[in-house]
Amino acid sequence: MIEATELTRTYGPLRAVDGLSFSVPKGAVCGFLGPNGAGKSTTIRMIAGLFPPDSGQLSVGGVDVAADPMGVRSQIGYLPESNPLDTELRVEEYLRFRGRLVGLHGRPLTDAISRSLGLCGLEEVSRRLLGALSKGYRQRAGLAAALLGDPPLLVLDEPTVGLDPAQQGTFRTLLASLAGERTVLLSSHLLAEVDASCSWLVMISGGRLVATGSRDEVMARASGAPVVMELSGDGLAGFESTLSDMTGIGEVRTVGVGGGWHELRVVPSDGADHREELVQRALAAGFQLREVRRERQTLESVFLTLAGATAPDWSGADDDETGGQSS
Description:
By secondary structure, the chain is an alpha/beta fold. The protein has eleven helices and 14 strands. Strand 4 and strand 5 form a beta hairpin.
């Protein structure tokens, strides 16, 4: 559905997107991930046909974005992070206005509004003013507008920003109900949201690709899950050094201390499960063991492994391409 090859986009001296290549298959729910300043919003705006790349090739549904931006826009339902609602309009009035903008009139427009209201659970508030609705219902209204015309691609840029946990859950349920009918590109800094909703991933950092593929494929590319050992005894520093020399071990460090117990985190570099050997070495060195467990791999830990980065800022919206403004 989306094919991007060597995309580049600059803003003065800032290269927001730098040789970015990826694809998103038709029908996938794709999580578009990256920390602040990664270039997500710039890429999304290029996909939406709002502006062309400086160089590279980008197509949506086989239509070249640079050659036919209007043809691309006709295939996309776009919900930007700053949901552009006229708060003095009623929900149904707003959808009628938006539907006319995409060329719908008469009975097709009425039918499209009815379908969007039903899909997004807005029938009961269709006659209410948008300004009187909660943030959750306003986001639903924005999604309903994006669905008008039944576009084959939905582009959702940080759709749950500002929603409380219950509203986020409701929105995820709504998103799940749309899966399979169309391709969805979901940009979000909420990694748990992406983990729960997406079958395909595109990870970027500094405008460059970190990883892409099905969720299972991307998770499998990272090194094996870290092992955490809770142990007690003397000579911890020497033991850490011994473990670091083991074949297949990439990192060993103490991550917690308390009450005479130490928490040791061991990260494999070969993807293997080394727990049995680690336990044998700890016992041979005279340590008492209270617990040995493998950490569950998360999208953030996988990103850190694949990007070779430390502590990226996932706290909010992308701001690299707008001079520090939220996008």
